[in-house]
Design goal:
The protein is mainly alpha-helical. Helix content is 72%, strand content 0%. Helix 1 (2-21) crosses helix 4 (49-74) and helix 1 crosses helix 6.
Length: 188
């Protein structure tokens, strides 16, 4: 258990560096210093910078996947539950440190192939969303709208105010509910 905790501390330190100082400041030395361990201690867990970034992506993806699957399992409604889970987790799940998303930026800069775990998760989610009992195009539009909010925050581009974000979430939830009840006239 201690190894797992130390690994998480290292990943958290790496994420903070990327988020606060930029990808070019992500070095093994900087991560070791930020995590409060020796470089040798860091190398015990992550042999290379690429392995570290891979760990960042895998941790984020696994955490996200677990949250979505937990929401799906807890949802008593069969129709639309994957789309609802994706919407709810993306809008409402706050990682212990919002810097975790920085691992995705680091992967894109270091080696885009390191994003494969996230690509695989999205391929699976998209398939499940399209086969969720809803109109596949409408369900995909909800997913893409949800991703738009997340990506605007990830890239720190124009971000809407919290009140507007809540209104968007509410509108998407209402749309999803109407789709589930087949009350949306433009779905066909």
């Amino acid at each position: 258990m201690a190894r797992h905790s130390r690994k998480i501390e290292i990943l958290d330190a790496a994420s903070r560096i990327v988020s606060q100082q930029g990808i070019f400041n992500l070095t093994l030395e900087a991560v070791a210093k930020e995590a409060g361990i020796s470089k040798g201690g860091l190398l015990y867990h992550f042999k290379t910078k690429e392995a570290l970034v891979s760990g960042m992506v895998k941790h984020l993806t696994d955490n996200y996947r677990e949250k979505i699957e937990a929401h799906v399992e807890a949802d008593p409604e069969e129709i639309g539950r994957w789309t609802r889970a994706f919407l709810n987790v993306t809008f409402n799940h706050v990682y212990p440190n919002k810097d975790w998303n920085a691992g995705l930026l680091a992967a894109k800069a270091v080696n885009p192939a390191l994003l494969k775990p996230l690509h695989d998760a999205y391929k699976d989610w998209q398939h499940k969303i399209e086969n969720d009992g809803l109109d596949p195009t409408d369900a995909t539009l909800i997913r893409l709208s949800t991703d738009g909010i997340w990506l605007s925050e990830l890239f720190d581009v124009y971000q809407i105010e919290e009140e507007k974000k809540e209104q968007v979430y509410k509108r998407l939830s209402e749309w999803l509910h109407a789709l589930q009840k087949k009350e949306v006239p433009f779905s066909e």
